[in-house]
Amino acid sequence: MAANYRETVIDGYNLIHKLLKKESGDAMEKKRAQLELVLARYRQKTRRQVTVVYDGGRSPRPLTSKGALEVIFSGSVKSADHWIIDHVRALGPRADMTLVVSSDREIRRNAIAYGAKCLDSEIFIDELDALGLLAPTQEKLKSKEGTRRSQKEGATPVTDTEINYWLRLFEPKK
Predict the structure, then answer these.
(1) Lowest-confidence segment of 72-86, 97-111, 142-156 by average pLDDT
(2) Number of folded domains that form the chain
């Protein structure tokens, strides 16, 4: 995605379930660590502030840790969904410089209403892969073989110009 956002806010568990769904035997702590490693590399490559928000935490207040990226546990009173929505609302006019990553319709609907841009988790995973930030897996290798096969059969890849055209065409009007 070529747009210049200052902050990327990520619905952590939503992205984990889309990205690491085949590795269901791993403990959630290990999955969070894997995701955060990928997101730290994403932050380095894009120079964007990255905030990943998870549900829960033992405290009624959010727990936050800062490092290469900001990790927030929403606390026991508020869900990660509502934390993200409240965060985007609080940004006011700066919300248009924020990218929210989630497949959750409520988060996306509210974030767009407050001026943020949204990206579905699956599309964000494709972006991470295009940036070379995901380790290749057997499943990815199979899907790449399928892509190569379809390109040989006459399908042409979509260019960045075409993608930007369609994004502008379907961008919500303000």
Answers:
(1) 142-156
(2) 1
